[in-house]
Specification:
Shape: globular
Strand content: 5-15%
Number of helices: 5
Largest sheet: 2 strands, antiparallel
Distance between the termini: 9 Å
Number of strands: 2
Number of domains: 1
Structural class: mainly alpha
Radius of gyration: 13 Å
């Protein structure tokens, strides 16, 4: 994982600015899983909803991605651009969705276990 990405992500997870949800990157009521927080802080404007309150389609102002934010895993090109392997993304998804770890616990894990690049 890229060092700067990790630092910004961990800070956001600890900030208290995000409410946590399970089984999707971002809920319709504005809550996030830990991976949704990563996408939100790294790609400004990622969660645009096309002007509809209940429109689940996600568009990205950087990279042209489009998919449902009810997905539980960021797309491959998003993960690769952030330096996040599929294995680590799955591990964090389990911590968030199945084990009920808090964002602070997940932030501690990220700091302790993610190797830095650059």
């Amino acid at each position: 994982m890229h060092k700067k990405v990790r630092e910004v992500w961990v800070k956001a997870l600890r900030s208290g600015e995000y409410e946590q949800c399970n089984d999707q990157l971002c809920s319709n009521d504005g809550k996030f899983c830990c991976l949704g927080v990563l996408i939100d802080v790294q790609l400004d404007g990622y969660w645009e909803k096309g002007g509809k309150v209940n429109d689940w389609e996600v568009t990205c102002t950087e990279g042209g991605w489009s998919y449902q934010h009810s997905e539980i895993m960021p797309p491959k090109d998003a993960r690769e651009s952030l330096g996040l392997s599929l294995e680590l993304a799955k591990e964090l998804s389990v911590m968030n969705d199945e084990q009920g770890k808090s964002f602070k616990e997940i932030a501690n894990y990220i700091e302790s276990n993610f190797k830095e690049k650059i």
